[in-house]
Amino acid sequence: MKFFRQLSILLLSISIFSCQSIKKSFESRDYDSVISQFLKTNNFDDEELSMFEKSYKAAFDRDKQQITVLKSLNNGERWEEIFDLYTKINTRQNNVLRLLPLHYTNGDEAIIETFNFSSVLEESKQNAAQFYYDQGVKLLNSGVKSSIRQSLDYFAASKKFYINYKDVNELMDQALAKGKNYVLLIVERNPTLMVPPSFEQSIVDNVKLTQRDQWVNIDYRRKDNVVYDYVVKLNLYDIQVSPDALKEFNTVEEKTIEDGWQYVLDSRGNVQKDSLGNDIKIPKYAKISCQVKETRMNKTAQVFGDATIYDAQTKDYIKNQKCSGNAAFDYSYFQVYGNRDALSTATLSKLGNPPALFPNSFDMVERSKEQLIRCYQDFVMANYNAFAYAK
Questions:
Q1: CA angle 291-296-297, nearest 5°?
Q2: Is 250 in the same domain as 371?
Q3: Residues 260-270: what's their mean pLDDT?
Q4: Binning pLDDT at 50, 70 and 90, where does residue 3 land?
Q5: Do residue 103 and residue 155 come from a single domain?
Q6: Are residues 52 and 152 in the same domain?
Protein backbone atom coordinates (compact mmCIF):
# COMPACT_ATOMS: atom_id res chain seq x y z
CA MET A 1 0.00 0.00 0.00
CA LYS A 2 2.81 2.37 0.88
CA PHE A 3 4.39 1.85 -2.58
CA PHE A 4 1.17 2.64 -4.44
CA ARG A 5 0.60 5.73 -2.26
CA GLN A 6 4.09 6.99 -3.11
CA LEU A 7 3.57 6.26 -6.80
CA SER A 8 0.28 8.17 -6.79
CA ILE A 9 1.95 11.14 -5.13
CA LEU A 10 4.76 11.05 -7.70
CA LEU A 11 2.35 10.91 -10.64
CA LEU A 12 0.29 13.73 -9.14
CA SER A 13 3.44 15.83 -8.70
CA ILE A 14 4.43 15.21 -12.30
CA SER A 15 0.95 16.13 -13.47
CA ILE A 16 0.95 19.36 -11.43
CA PHE A 17 4.43 20.28 -12.68
CA SER A 18 3.39 19.55 -16.27
CA CYS A 19 0.33 21.71 -15.94
CA GLN A 20 2.31 24.56 -14.44
CA SER A 21 4.90 24.33 -17.22
CA ILE A 22 2.28 24.33 -19.98
CA LYS A 23 0.48 27.22 -18.31
CA LYS A 24 3.70 29.23 -18.03
CA SER A 25 4.45 28.71 -21.74
CA PHE A 26 0.86 29.61 -22.65
CA GLU A 27 0.92 32.82 -20.65
CA SER A 28 4.19 33.83 -22.35
CA ARG A 29 2.58 33.02 -25.73
CA ASP A 30 5.15 30.35 -26.48
CA TYR A 31 2.58 28.34 -28.40
CA ASP A 32 5.04 25.91 -29.96
CA SER A 33 6.29 24.97 -26.49
CA VAL A 34 2.73 24.41 -25.27
CA ILE A 35 2.06 22.07 -28.20
CA SER A 36 5.36 20.22 -27.73
CA GLN A 37 4.74 19.70 -24.00
CA PHE A 38 1.16 18.62 -24.54
CA LEU A 39 2.19 16.00 -27.10
CA LYS A 40 4.45 14.46 -24.43
CA THR A 41 1.71 14.38 -21.81
CA ASN A 42 -0.01 11.05 -21.22
CA ASN A 43 -2.73 12.42 -18.93
CA PHE A 44 -4.15 15.92 -19.28
CA ASP A 45 -6.90 17.90 -17.65
CA ASP A 46 -9.43 20.24 -19.19
CA GLU A 47 -7.27 23.31 -18.53
CA GLU A 48 -4.30 21.77 -20.35
CA LEU A 49 -6.47 20.70 -23.26
CA SER A 50 -7.96 24.19 -23.52
CA MET A 51 -4.49 25.78 -23.58
CA PHE A 52 -3.39 23.28 -26.21
CA GLU A 53 -6.49 23.93 -28.35
CA LYS A 54 -5.93 27.70 -28.23
CA SER A 55 -2.18 27.40 -28.79
CA TYR A 56 -2.61 25.16 -31.81
CA LYS A 57 -4.99 27.68 -33.45
CA ALA A 58 -2.78 30.63 -32.48
CA ALA A 59 0.36 28.99 -33.90
CA PHE A 60 -1.46 28.17 -37.13
CA ASP A 61 -2.85 31.70 -37.48
CA ARG A 62 0.56 33.20 -36.78
CA ASP A 63 2.32 31.08 -39.42
CA LYS A 64 -0.49 31.63 -41.93
CA GLN A 65 -0.25 35.39 -41.42
CA GLN A 66 3.53 35.27 -41.92
CA ILE A 67 3.04 33.35 -45.19
CA THR A 68 0.55 35.99 -46.37
CA VAL A 69 3.05 38.76 -45.65
CA LEU A 70 5.86 36.93 -47.45
CA LYS A 71 3.70 36.33 -50.53
CA SER A 72 2.71 40.01 -50.62
CA LEU A 73 6.39 40.99 -50.92
CA ASN A 74 6.42 39.41 -54.38
CA ASN A 75 10.07 38.44 -53.86
CA GLY A 76 11.07 35.10 -55.33
CA GLU A 77 13.80 34.73 -52.73
CA ARG A 78 11.04 34.35 -50.10
CA TRP A 79 9.65 31.11 -51.53
CA GLU A 80 12.04 28.98 -49.53
CA GLU A 81 10.84 30.66 -46.32
CA ILE A 82 7.24 30.06 -47.38
CA PHE A 83 8.02 26.40 -48.09
CA ASP A 84 9.70 26.06 -44.69
CA LEU A 85 6.63 27.55 -42.95
CA TYR A 86 4.24 25.21 -44.77
CA THR A 87 6.52 22.30 -43.86
CA LYS A 88 6.49 23.43 -40.22
CA ILE A 89 2.68 23.67 -40.16
CA ASN A 90 2.30 20.28 -41.86
CA THR A 91 4.75 18.58 -39.49
CA ARG A 92 2.95 20.07 -36.48
CA GLN A 93 -0.40 18.85 -37.85
CA ASN A 94 0.93 15.32 -38.48
CA ASN A 95 2.22 15.14 -34.90
CA VAL A 96 -1.21 16.13 -33.57
CA LEU A 97 -3.28 13.87 -35.86
CA ARG A 98 -2.26 10.76 -33.91
CA LEU A 99 -4.00 12.17 -30.80
CA LEU A 100 -7.25 13.18 -32.44
CA PRO A 101 -10.02 13.29 -31.51
CA LEU A 102 -9.46 14.97 -28.12
CA HIS A 103 -12.33 15.43 -25.63
CA TYR A 104 -13.00 17.41 -22.50
CA THR A 105 -14.35 15.65 -19.43
CA ASN A 106 -17.89 16.79 -20.33
CA GLY A 107 -17.62 14.99 -23.67
CA ASP A 108 -17.12 18.06 -25.88
CA GLU A 109 -14.55 17.58 -28.64
CA ALA A 110 -11.65 20.00 -28.88
CA ILE A 111 -11.71 21.98 -32.13
CA ILE A 112 -8.49 21.14 -33.98
CA GLU A 113 -8.76 22.12 -37.64
CA THR A 114 -6.73 20.10 -40.11
CA PHE A 115 -5.99 20.76 -43.76
CA ASN A 116 -4.42 19.09 -46.76
CA PHE A 117 -1.19 20.96 -47.41
CA SER A 118 0.00 18.84 -50.35
CA SER A 119 -0.78 21.40 -53.04
CA VAL A 120 0.64 24.46 -51.24
CA LEU A 121 3.75 22.52 -50.25
CA GLU A 122 4.31 21.50 -53.84
CA GLU A 123 3.60 25.00 -55.11
CA SER A 124 6.08 26.67 -52.75
CA LYS A 125 8.62 23.94 -53.38
CA GLN A 126 8.29 24.38 -57.14
CA ASN A 127 8.48 28.17 -56.92
CA ALA A 128 11.56 28.09 -54.68
CA ALA A 129 13.36 25.64 -56.97
CA GLN A 130 12.43 27.70 -60.04
CA PHE A 131 13.59 30.98 -58.46
CA TYR A 132 17.01 29.59 -57.60
CA TYR A 133 17.24 27.93 -61.01
CA ASP A 134 16.43 31.21 -62.82
CA GLN A 135 18.95 33.15 -60.73
CA GLY A 136 21.60 30.54 -61.46
CA VAL A 137 20.94 30.69 -65.21
CA LYS A 138 21.16 34.49 -65.19
CA LEU A 139 24.54 34.41 -63.41
CA LEU A 140 25.80 31.58 -65.59
CA ASN A 141 25.09 33.60 -68.73
CA SER A 142 26.58 36.83 -67.35
CA GLY A 143 30.02 36.23 -68.84
CA VAL A 144 31.62 37.35 -65.55
CA LYS A 145 33.56 34.56 -63.87
CA SER A 146 32.82 35.67 -60.32
CA SER A 147 29.09 35.60 -61.15
CA ILE A 148 29.38 32.29 -62.96
CA ARG A 149 30.94 30.79 -59.85
CA GLN A 150 28.13 32.20 -57.72
CA SER A 151 25.60 30.47 -59.96
CA LEU A 152 26.72 27.15 -58.46
CA ASP A 153 25.27 28.19 -55.10
CA TYR A 154 21.89 28.93 -56.69
CA PHE A 155 21.86 25.68 -58.62
CA ALA A 156 22.76 23.82 -55.42
CA ALA A 157 19.89 25.62 -53.63
CA SER A 158 17.54 24.48 -56.40
CA LYS A 159 18.72 20.89 -55.95
CA LYS A 160 17.68 21.01 -52.28
CA PHE A 161 14.09 20.82 -53.48
CA TYR A 162 14.50 18.47 -56.45
CA ILE A 163 17.73 16.51 -56.83
CA ASN A 164 17.40 16.50 -60.64
CA TYR A 165 15.48 19.72 -61.21
CA LYS A 166 15.28 20.32 -64.96
CA ASP A 167 18.83 20.37 -66.40
CA VAL A 168 20.42 21.74 -63.22
CA ASN A 169 23.15 19.07 -63.12
CA GLU A 170 24.28 19.90 -66.65
CA LEU A 171 24.23 23.62 -65.82
CA MET A 172 26.41 23.02 -62.77
CA ASP A 173 28.94 21.26 -64.97
CA GLN A 174 28.89 24.26 -67.30
CA ALA A 175 29.43 26.64 -64.37
CA LEU A 176 32.40 24.62 -63.18
CA ALA A 177 33.95 24.75 -66.64
CA LYS A 178 33.14 28.41 -67.39
CA GLY A 179 34.06 29.63 -63.92
CA LYS A 180 37.55 28.18 -63.94
CA ASN A 181 40.65 30.22 -64.53
CA TYR A 182 42.87 28.44 -67.04
CA VAL A 183 46.61 28.73 -66.52
CA LEU A 184 49.34 27.71 -68.96
CA LEU A 185 52.86 26.98 -67.73
CA ILE A 186 55.61 27.42 -70.31
CA VAL A 187 59.39 27.72 -70.44
CA GLU A 188 61.13 29.85 -73.04
CA ARG A 189 64.82 30.66 -73.56
CA ASN A 190 67.09 33.01 -75.35
CA PRO A 191 67.52 31.22 -78.70
CA THR A 192 71.28 31.73 -78.56
CA LEU A 193 71.57 29.57 -75.45
CA MET A 194 72.76 26.02 -75.97
CA VAL A 195 70.72 23.59 -73.89
CA PRO A 196 69.99 19.84 -74.01
CA PRO A 197 67.17 18.73 -76.33
CA SER A 198 63.65 19.29 -74.88
CA PHE A 199 65.23 21.01 -71.88
CA GLU A 200 62.47 23.62 -71.61
CA GLN A 201 59.51 21.25 -71.73
CA SER A 202 61.21 18.78 -69.40
CA ILE A 203 61.22 21.49 -66.70
CA VAL A 204 57.47 22.00 -67.01
CA ASP A 205 56.81 18.26 -67.17
CA ASN A 206 58.55 17.79 -63.82
CA VAL A 207 56.73 20.54 -61.93
CA LYS A 208 54.66 18.87 -59.20
CA LEU A 209 51.76 20.91 -57.85
CA THR A 210 49.99 19.31 -54.89
CA GLN A 211 47.36 22.03 -54.38
CA ARG A 212 44.01 21.58 -56.08
CA ASP A 213 41.16 24.06 -56.52
CA GLN A 214 37.90 23.64 -58.40
CA TRP A 215 38.37 27.07 -59.94
CA VAL A 216 41.90 26.57 -61.30
CA ASN A 217 42.99 24.42 -64.21
CA ILE A 218 46.72 24.27 -64.99
CA ASP A 219 48.01 22.97 -68.31
CA TYR A 220 51.61 22.04 -68.95
CA ARG A 221 51.18 22.00 -72.72
CA ARG A 222 49.09 24.43 -74.75
CA LYS A 223 45.68 23.15 -75.82
CA ASP A 224 44.13 24.68 -78.92
CA ASN A 225 40.56 24.56 -77.62
CA VAL A 226 41.30 26.40 -74.35
CA VAL A 227 41.14 30.17 -73.84
CA TYR A 228 43.74 30.83 -71.16
CA ASP A 229 43.42 33.47 -68.47
CA TYR A 230 47.03 33.44 -67.31
CA VAL A 231 50.40 32.42 -68.64
CA VAL A 232 53.22 31.64 -66.23
CA LYS A 233 56.50 31.78 -68.13
CA LEU A 234 59.95 30.77 -66.98
CA ASN A 235 62.29 32.72 -69.24
CA LEU A 236 65.89 31.47 -69.44
CA TYR A 237 68.13 34.30 -70.56
CA ASP A 238 71.71 33.35 -69.67
CA ILE A 239 73.91 30.31 -69.03
CA GLN A 240 77.40 30.38 -67.58
CA VAL A 241 79.51 27.22 -67.55
CA SER A 242 82.99 27.43 -66.08
CA PRO A 243 86.05 25.90 -67.80
CA ASP A 244 87.30 22.51 -66.63
CA ALA A 245 89.44 23.12 -63.55
CA LEU A 246 91.95 20.40 -62.71
CA LYS A 247 94.54 20.56 -59.95
CA GLU A 248 97.08 17.95 -58.92
CA PHE A 249 98.68 17.64 -55.50
CA ASN A 250 101.70 15.36 -54.90
CA THR A 251 102.66 14.26 -51.42
CA VAL A 252 104.77 11.53 -49.89
CA GLU A 253 103.64 9.55 -46.89
CA GLU A 254 106.17 7.71 -44.75
CA LYS A 255 105.91 5.19 -41.98
CA THR A 256 108.41 3.32 -39.80
CA ILE A 257 107.62 -0.35 -39.55
CA GLU A 258 109.11 -3.33 -37.73
CA ASP A 259 111.39 -5.26 -40.06
CA GLY A 260 112.66 -8.41 -38.31
CA TRP A 261 115.03 -8.43 -35.30
CA GLN A 262 118.68 -8.35 -34.34
CA TYR A 263 120.90 -9.58 -31.47
CA VAL A 264 122.12 -7.26 -28.75
CA LEU A 265 125.93 -7.30 -28.68
CA ASP A 266 128.23 -6.37 -25.86
CA SER A 267 131.35 -4.23 -26.18
CA ARG A 268 133.35 -7.22 -27.41
CA GLY A 269 130.84 -8.05 -30.14
CA ASN A 270 129.40 -11.04 -28.35
CA VAL A 271 125.66 -11.76 -28.07
CA GLN A 272 124.37 -10.74 -24.70
CA LYS A 273 122.43 -13.17 -22.53
CA ASP A 274 119.52 -12.59 -20.23
CA SER A 275 119.35 -13.99 -16.67
CA LEU A 276 118.16 -17.33 -17.98
CA GLY A 277 120.99 -17.61 -20.44
CA ASN A 278 118.88 -16.82 -23.53
CA ASP A 279 120.15 -14.64 -26.36
CA ILE A 280 118.77 -11.09 -26.15
CA LYS A 281 116.98 -9.91 -29.33
CA ILE A 282 115.51 -6.53 -30.19
CA PRO A 283 113.15 -5.48 -33.06
CA LYS A 284 114.66 -4.00 -36.17
CA TYR A 285 112.84 -1.07 -37.89
CA ALA A 286 112.75 0.20 -41.45
CA LYS A 287 111.27 3.34 -43.02
CA ILE A 288 108.87 2.89 -45.98
CA SER A 289 107.27 5.54 -48.21
CA CYS A 290 104.56 5.96 -50.86
CA GLN A 291 103.98 8.83 -53.28
CA VAL A 292 100.37 10.05 -53.37
CA LYS A 293 98.98 11.98 -56.33
CA GLU A 294 95.59 13.65 -55.71
CA THR A 295 93.68 14.98 -58.71
CA ARG A 296 90.88 17.46 -57.97
CA MET A 297 88.31 18.29 -60.65
CA ASN A 298 85.86 21.18 -60.50
CA LYS A 299 83.28 22.58 -62.89
CA THR A 300 80.20 24.78 -62.31
CA ALA A 301 77.15 25.87 -64.26
CA GLN A 302 74.55 28.57 -63.66
CA VAL A 303 71.34 29.07 -65.58
CA PHE A 304 69.65 32.45 -65.05
CA GLY A 305 65.99 33.18 -65.63
CA ASP A 306 62.84 34.75 -64.23
CA ALA A 307 59.31 33.52 -63.67
CA THR A 308 56.57 35.90 -64.78
CA ILE A 309 52.78 35.86 -64.65
CA TYR A 310 50.99 37.48 -67.60
CA ASP A 311 47.35 38.10 -68.35
CA ALA A 312 46.85 35.81 -71.32
CA GLN A 313 44.39 38.15 -73.02
CA THR A 314 45.91 41.59 -72.47
CA LYS A 315 49.54 40.42 -72.18
CA ASP A 316 49.84 42.67 -69.13
CA TYR A 317 52.62 41.87 -66.69
CA ILE A 318 51.33 40.85 -63.24
CA LYS A 319 54.20 39.48 -61.17
CA ASN A 320 57.85 38.51 -61.57
CA GLN A 321 60.49 36.61 -59.66
CA LYS A 322 64.09 35.68 -60.39
CA CYS A 323 64.86 31.98 -60.80
CA SER A 324 68.23 30.36 -61.24
CA GLY A 325 69.69 26.90 -61.30
CA ASN A 326 73.15 26.02 -60.06
CA ALA A 327 75.15 22.86 -60.53
CA ALA A 328 78.65 21.90 -59.41
CA PHE A 329 80.89 19.00 -60.33
CA ASP A 330 83.42 18.36 -57.57
CA TYR A 331 85.39 15.15 -57.91
CA SER A 332 88.75 13.87 -56.75
CA TYR A 333 90.67 10.64 -57.11
CA PHE A 334 94.03 9.36 -55.86
CA GLN A 335 96.85 7.49 -57.51
CA VAL A 336 99.68 5.97 -55.44
CA TYR A 337 103.22 4.88 -56.32
CA GLY A 338 105.27 2.91 -53.83
CA ASN A 339 104.55 0.87 -50.73
CA ARG A 340 100.82 1.19 -49.89
CA ASP A 341 101.59 0.08 -46.33
CA ALA A 342 102.98 3.55 -45.73
CA LEU A 343 99.58 5.17 -46.30
CA SER A 344 97.40 6.49 -43.46
CA THR A 345 93.93 5.17 -42.83
CA ALA A 346 92.47 8.50 -44.05
CA THR A 347 94.32 8.24 -47.37
CA LEU A 348 93.36 4.60 -47.83
CA SER A 349 89.66 5.53 -47.46
CA LYS A 350 89.95 7.88 -50.46
CA LEU A 351 91.34 5.38 -52.91
CA GLY A 352 87.97 4.08 -54.12
CA ASN A 353 87.30 6.73 -56.76
CA PRO A 354 88.54 5.83 -60.23
CA PRO A 355 89.84 8.45 -62.66
CA ALA A 356 87.00 10.30 -64.41
CA LEU A 357 86.26 12.68 -67.26
CA PHE A 358 84.70 16.12 -66.93
CA PRO A 359 80.96 16.33 -67.75
CA ASN A 360 80.25 18.35 -70.89
CA SER A 361 78.35 21.65 -70.85
CA PHE A 362 75.01 20.01 -71.69
CA ASP A 363 75.39 17.68 -68.72
CA MET A 364 76.14 20.60 -66.41
CA VAL A 365 73.11 22.55 -67.63
CA GLU A 366 70.94 19.45 -67.17
CA ARG A 367 72.13 19.17 -63.57
CA SER A 368 70.96 22.74 -62.89
CA LYS A 369 67.38 21.79 -63.82
CA GLU A 370 66.40 20.58 -60.34
CA GLN A 371 66.80 24.03 -58.76
CA LEU A 372 64.99 25.69 -61.66
CA ILE A 373 62.05 23.32 -61.26
CA ARG A 374 61.87 23.95 -57.52
CA CYS A 375 61.96 27.74 -57.98
CA TYR A 376 59.30 27.64 -60.71
CA GLN A 377 57.11 25.33 -58.68
CA ASP A 378 57.33 27.50 -55.54
CA PHE A 379 56.46 30.60 -57.59
CA VAL A 380 53.31 28.97 -58.98
CA MET A 381 52.23 27.69 -55.56
CA ALA A 382 52.79 31.10 -53.93
CA ASN A 383 50.38 32.66 -56.44
CA TYR A 384 47.80 29.88 -56.51
CA ASN A 385 45.11 31.93 -54.73
CA ALA A 386 45.55 34.72 -57.24
CA PHE A 387 44.81 32.26 -60.06
CA ALA A 388 41.77 30.94 -58.22
CA TYR A 389 40.05 34.15 -57.19
CA ALA A 390 41.13 36.85 -59.65
CA LYS A 391 38.83 37.84 -62.53
A1: 150
A2: yes
A3: 78
A4: very low
A5: no
A6: no
Closest CA to 184 of 236, 219, 148: 219
Q: What is the pTM of this model?
A: 0.68
pLDDT digits (tens, 9 = 90+) for 109-146: 999 999 999 999 999 999 999 999 999 999 999 989 88
Question: Do 155 and 90 lie in a common domain?
Answer: no
Cα distances from 268 to residues 262, 264, 272, 278, in angstroms, run 16, 11, 10, 18
Q: What is the pLDDT of residue 267?
A: 77
Distance between CA 384 and CA 120 in Å, rounded?
48
| Half-sphere exposure for 77 (CA within 13 Å, toward CB) | 3
pLDDT value for 14: 44
Q: How distant, in Å, are the alpha carbons of 33, 285, 288, 290, 340 from that of 259?
A: 110, 5, 10, 17, 16
Question: Is residue 217, in this structure, part of any structural domain at all?
Answer: no
Query: Based on the domain organization, do 327 and 376 belong to the same domain?
Result: yes
